[in-house]
Amino acid sequence: MRLTAAYLFIHLFVAPYLATGQSGQIDIDRVALMPNMPSPYQMRDWKNVAVKYDSFIFNLNATGQYLPVMHLKSNSINYPSLQPVLLDSYVGVKGSGNQAEAINIIPAVVGASLVGVDKTNQFGNNWVFKVKDFYNKANGQNVYLNGYSATSGNDWWYDLMPNVFFYQLYSLYPSTPDFNTQFISVADRWLAAVNAMGGSATPWKLPMMNYRAFNLATMTPNSSGVHEPEAAGTIAWLLYHAYTKTGDKKYLQGAEMTAGFLSGLNFNPAYEIELPYGTFIAAKMNAELGTHYDIKKMINWSFDQSAVRNWGTVVGTWGNSVTGLNTVSGLVGEIDNPSTGYAFAMNGFQQAAALVPMVKYDKRFARTVAKWVLNLANASRLFYSKYLPSSHQDSYLWSSLHDPNSVIAYEGLKQTGLNDSSLYATGDAIRTGGGQTNLGLYGSSHVGYLGALITTTNIDGILLLDVNKTDFFGQNSFPSYITYNPYSSSQQVTLPLGAATYDIYDAISETTIKTGATGSVSITIPANQAMLLDYLPQGASPTAVNGKLTLGNKIIDYNYGYNFNGKLLIQSLASKDSLVEFNKPITVYSSVRNNAAPVTYSWYVNGLLSQSSPDSSYIWTAPSIKGLYNLKLKVSDGTSTASDSLSLQVVSHIPVSPIITMDSSRYYAGSIATIICHPGTADKATLKYSWSIPAGTIISKKDSVLKWQTPAGDGLYPVTCTVKNSDSLSATSQQLALVKKMTQFAGSPVAYYPLDGDAKDYSGNGHDASANGVQLTSDERGEANKAYKFKDGADIIDVPNDGSLNFQNQVTLSFWLKLDAVPGESYILSHGSYQQRWKISVIPNNKIRWTVKTASSVTDLDSSFPLQVNQFYHFTMTYTGYSMEIYVNGELDSFLSTNGLISIASDDITFGRQTALIQNYSLFGTLDEVRIYDRALGPNEIKTLKTTWNSVTAIENTLAAITLYPNPASGIINVSGLSSPVLNVSLADVTGQSVPVTYSAIDSDLHIAYNRHTGLLILKIETESGVLYRKILSY
C-alpha cells in the first residue's frame, strides 16, 4: 500500500495513542453489563437457518398439520396482474391461509435475498414482484402499509416499517417494475406528513412528532394512546435515502428535520424496532454531511429501558436446573421487571441489522456493538425448539414433528413462563385465542438479516460481522467487517479472503495490518478489543481528506483521525416558490448548524455580492428581465465557511390553476356538455388552452370553451384543462364529470319498508324487521301513522343480517327523513357501520354522511348543505362500483370517486342506531319509506322515488274469502271464490309501476295473465261490492 503524506502523519503520530487500550472506543452502558463471552456458547449457523427457513415457508406444497403456511391470493387489490402472497403470522393461526402482513412477508423476501437466495425466480414465482401489492394504491394511501388495503394513523411502526422493508427490497432489486415510482411516492407522502406536522424550511422549523401515528388520508396526527416518537428516525431513514438516490434537497431537508427532532428529545422514545434505524441514519448523516447528532445518547436509548414502553435490551441469565443457566444478554423486549422479562425474536434481528452497519459511520462503537451482537446471536438460539426442553416451550410437539431443522422461532422468550418455569419459549397467540401455537412466523421471517451479518471464524466467540450487508443504499465500496475478541488474551484469527489479494486496513487503530493478503490469512486481535477491517485493493494509495480516508472517490474511513466534531453546515436554503414575477419581492430563507460563533450571511446574485449581514433571510426583488437567476449564500463563523445556492426563474406572469365549470352536475350518456376553463391570471390575451378527456367525443374547442359529447357508458370521467401563458409556463386543473345512462326500473328492492304501521319487508324477500320503542307518526304528506319517530337511544328498527343482504357490487338506499335534533352524530341506517359495511348518519354540522367500506378503502361522502330540523327530505344514496352519490329530493347533490367490492357485515341492518348493541349515535327524528336495492339506480329512476308512495302496502283485506293460486306465480294467476262481479283487475310492483295484465271472469272464478315480472306484486281486484288486494310473489 502506497501512503500519502497526510496518511503517514496520522498513522505515525495519532494512531498509536488511539490504539492504546482502544481509547477511541465508547461503551454502550447496558452492553458494558453483558459478559464478554456468553455462556454456554452455542452459536447457530444463522445463514443456514435463514436458507432453510426460506425453503420451508415458501413451499406452497408443504403437507402436515397447519401446512402450508404460505398461499397465493387469487386476486389482488392494487395491481390486478398479481397473485399476492398470504403468509400466516403464526403456525396454526386462526384464519390460516388468509393473512398477509408486510412486516412478515417483505422481511422474509429481503432476509432470504441477503443470504443469497434469488427471490425473483424461486419455485416458479417472482416473490419480489408479488410484494408490491402492499403498496396501497387503490385506497389512495400511496405508501406501503401492513395490509394490502389498510389505513394509516393507528400505529406508527406498523405504518412506517413496511416502507423501510420496501426500500431495502428496492435497493436489492432496483429494476423491478413500479418500484422506482413507489420509492418516490413513499418519500413524497412521508415528507408531506413532516410538513403537516409543522416542519418547514421557509423558515426553518422542526416538526412536532410526539404522536402515536399519522393519518395520511386526513393528514392529521393521532395523539391518543402510547406515543411513538421514535418514528421520527424512521422517516429520516426513508427521506435521507430518497435524497441520496434522487439528489432532491427537499428530502434532505425533511431528513434533517426529523433527525433533528429525534436527537433533540430529552427522554428515551424507544417503542418497538424503529429507534435503531433512527440511530443508524443519524450516524450516517454525521459521517456524510457533518451534522453532529448525539449518537452516544441515541445508541444508549436503543438499549436502555425506554420512557415510553419499558422496552430495552435484556441483561443477565435465565434458567433453572432443567434448562441450565443461559446467558440471555443482548435480546430485545420488555424489561420493566427484573423477574418478568419478555424478549422477542424479531426485535433483536432488526436491531442488529440497523446497528452493525452504523459502526462504519461511527467507529467509536465498533467494539461495544460487536460484543452485543455476540451475545444476541448466541442467545437467539433459545427462541428455537431444539434448544430448550419440551417442558419449557409451548409447541414442542408440532416443532419436533414438522420442523426437524428447528428454523421456525417462537415469537418470544420469557424469563418466567408456564407454571413459573424459568426460561420459557412462548408467544401471545395461544393466550389470546389467535392461534394453536406460539411459533411466530412474523418474527422468524427476519432471521436472514442476522444470518447475512455473521460469519464464524476458527475461534469460538470471534465473529466476522459484515458492516455492508444491511447498509442499504450505502457506498459499500470495499468488503468491511467488525471482529471482536471476547477473551482475556490475544487470539490468532484466520480470515477467509478467497482468490482475491488485499491490503487489510483496520479503521480502529488506523493502521494497515496486512498487505498482499490472499487465501486464508491470520491476524492477531488483542484481548477484549475489536477491529474494523477494510479489504482494499493490493497496492492502494489512500488519501486523507477533510477527516476521511479515501481511495479515489471512495471512502475507506469516515472518521479518520477520530474527528467527530460537526462542521459548519447550511442545512437549509429555500424559498416558497422557484418562480417570481417581474419586480416582485421574494424571501429566501436559510438555516445553519454547528457554528462556533455568530454567522455572517453573504448573498450573491449571479456572482455579484448583494448583501452581507447577520440576517439568515434575504429579500430579493426580481428584475423585469426574464431569466434564471442564481442566488448563492456564503456563511462564515470566523473560523469556518460553507456555501450553497439555489436558482429562481423570473417571469412576467406566474400561472395559476384554472377553474373548470360544467353546465350540469351530471350528464346522461351521449348528451352534449358545455365546459368552461376559467384562467386564474390577468394575462388572458396570450393564453393557450389544451383539453384532455379519456372518452366521448369533442364536438368543438374554442379557447376556454369545450363542447363534449359524453360517452355511452356510466362512469366518472376526468376532464383536464391546461392553460399555457406567454412564458410557456402552464397550470393544469382537473374535474370529474359524472355520466349516467338512462335506465328503466328492473326488479324490485331487496328489501322495502313502507313503515306504514309495521316494520315488515314488502319486497317479498322475507327480511322483516322488528321495531322497538319507535312511535307511529305522520309522513311527509301529513298522513297519520304512516312513518316512525325515533325519540331516544333505546328506539330501534332491526333487520336480521342475511347473506342475501351482503351483496357486494352496488347498492342503493332511499328514505324520507325529518330531524328533530342533532345532539351529536346520529345514525339513520347502518349495516355494521363503517367498520364492517356501510352507514348513513347526520354529523354534528347537520350534513348527511354516506360511508361505504370496500376492499379498497373506507370512504365518506357528505351532502353539500346542512339539514334543517323539522323539515322532510328525501334521500337516495348509491354506490356504483366507481362512485358514491347522494341525491336529495331526486336531484344529484354530491359525488366522489371510489371503487372496490363492498365489504361483508356480520351485524344486523339497523334503523336509528349504529348497531343493535350500541345505543350511542341514535337518531332523533322521523324515518319513512326505506328501500334497499342491490344495484345502482339511475338518475331517472331516483327522480321518481320521491313521488312513489306505496298507498297499498299489501295489507290484505278480508272482504271475501277468496283462493288465489299458484302463488308464487310466473305469468298466470287464478282466483276463485269471488262473491261479486269483477269491474277491473290491475297489477303493480312495489315501486308503483304498473304491470300489463289481461283477465277473464267466469262466474266466481277469475283467470289473470300478466307480463312476467320478478319480485313482489300487488294484485288489485275491483268488484261491485268493494276492492280486494293480494300479494303475489312473482318469479
Question: Mind explaining what this structure looks like?
Answer:
- Helices cover 19% and strands 33% of the residues.
- A hairpin with a 2-residue loop joins strand 60 and strand 61 (1026-1034).
- The termini are far apart.
- The model is unreliable at 1-21 and 952-959 (pLDDT under 50).
- The strands form 15 sheets. Strands 39, 41, 42, 44, 49, 50, 51 and 53 form an eight-stranded antiparallel sheet that branches. A seven-stranded antiparallel sheet has the order 40-43-52-45-46-47-48.
- Helix 8 crosses helix 10.
- It has 1035 residues and is of the alpha+beta class.
- The longest helix has 18 residues, at 179-196.
- The protein contains 20 helices and 61 strands.
- It has six domains: 33-131 and 310-476, no CATH class; 135-309, no CATH class; 569-651, Sandwich (Immunoglobulin-like); 668-735, Sandwich (Immunoglobulin-like); 751-945, Jelly Rolls (Sandwich), CATH 2.60.120.200; 963-1034, Immunoglobulin-like (Sandwich).
What labels describe this entry?
alpha+beta, Immunoglobulin-like, 6 domains, eight-stranded antiparallel β-sheet, seven-stranded antiparallel β-sheet, 20 helices, disordered N terminus
- Mean pLDDT score: 92
Number of helices: 20
Rg from Cα: 36 Å
Major sheet:
8 strands, antiparallel
The number of domains: 6
Give the overall shape.
Answer: globular
Q: Given the helix and strand composition, which structural class is it?
A: alpha+beta
Q: Report the helical percentage.
A: 10-25%
Number of strands: 61
Return residue spans where pLDDT drops below 50 for at least 5 consecutive residues.
1-21, 952-959
Q: Please state roughly what percent of the residues sit in beta strands, choosing from under 5%, 5-15%, 15-25%, 25-35%, 35-45% or over 45%.
A: 25-35%
First and last CA, distance: 93 Å
